[in-house]
Specification:
mainly alpha; Fic-like fold; Arc Repressor Mutant, subunit A; ATP binding
Amino acid sequence: MTDTDWPPHTYVTRPYRQRIPRGPRVDRLLREVTVALPPHIADLDLALERPVAAMTTASAGALRHLDLVHGRTLDGLNHLQLRTEAIDSSKIEHVEASLADYGRALLGIGANSSATSMASATKAMARLIRDADSTRKITSDAILRAHQDLFARHPDEAATAGRFRTVQNWVGGSDYAPRDTLHVPPPPETVVDYIEDLVSFANRDDLSPIAQAAIVHAQFESIHPFIDGNGRIGRALIHAVLRRRRASRHLTVPIASALVAHRDRYFAALNDYRAGTAATIIAMLAASTTIATTESWKTAETLESIRQGWGEAAGGPRPGSAAYRLLDFLTEEPILNVELVTTSLGLEDVPGTIEGLERAGVLTRIKRTRRSPVWVAPAVLAEVEDLSARIQHQARQLPYGPR
């Protein structure tokens, strides 16, 4: 692949004036801004050099193998992967919360703003993947619905949730005006056209799924179609493309866990894309997928071991019993309350069953949840953290990405 294997962005200077003058005087006096104009990509050809092509083929093949072996039989693995991915995708945006608070937010019980944001990111990602799976298409409407999910519970952003931006935005630099920026996306009036071009590219079937997902993500980040949430929706799009292309039919490997380990290189790879080099972000995504897939094999084995250990600790409940069914459920939902179990499983005497597993050491009640008790399965939550840590450790060993 050449140094410029993809059309670079072009740039144009446009008039600019703050809508509500504020901030430093130099920001209030800004009268023009140079915006980036990404290429239209719907019909572009992509020629991968042999090493990068081999990486994408190998990573997609490994992902399909994991999905084939564990995708249908281990629902808990997908739930754990999806949540690990949403958590680490949020961390890239410096949004972090404890797993306990995150769990309370998932249940709709009072939690801090970061935990609520992480729970909303999980819902948005699941929505986008589910839509791609059921329709076999990536659509602008699905992207808008995912964005609605991401910000519906946000007090400051709910009014613009699920809507493309109508104002100029920017990345980095001043908070008040597009000065000293890292990237100024295309003008707001071009967003809808760019998104329709993007989804046309995303719905092609003649490209490597990994390369296609990488370019869809990079192009989306260049368009930056929302005021906020572009990174999380853009990374969710990676999984939507992989699901539409059937690179994975059931699982969502935590690719963001590898990207967060190389946050600066990840952003530099997006800059390479804007300069006309797609190879960097493609190689990074392929390597990240391979690492996440490899570590997910270990997590699948760990979940099976955890489930076996629970059965022994709980005295070997018979198949079909309330305790047996709840133990199976815990591999999918390691943070729960009575309402979730009742709604999901329809068990009788849910409090008694939960208390029995608490006595067996399978469940622990979260502190400060006396009025609305919430229990966690510590062994599964520990594996969530360990999966993320292992992926990040392995990612740091690889010199992929730009300088």
